[in-house]
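Figure 2 data, in text form.
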Amino acid sequence: MAISTQAREEARARVADNLRRMRAEAGLSQEELAELAGFHRTYLSQVERCKNNLSLDSLVSLASALGVDVVDLLRKPA
């Protein structure tokens, strides 16, 4: 069964929203988080704007840099 485009867009938006929120809660700029995760700031900016598709490895790197579990980046907001 194929995943719908809407489901993909919703998942990207959820990750982007969680990433922005957690980054702000940690007091980190995009540049600081990108450096901690081993990415360029423009890549992180694209992820936060749903312009780039994350690999699982990238998701793990971002979660690690934020000190959270990968699942936290995927979780629906409460």
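Caption note: The chain has one domain: 5-74.
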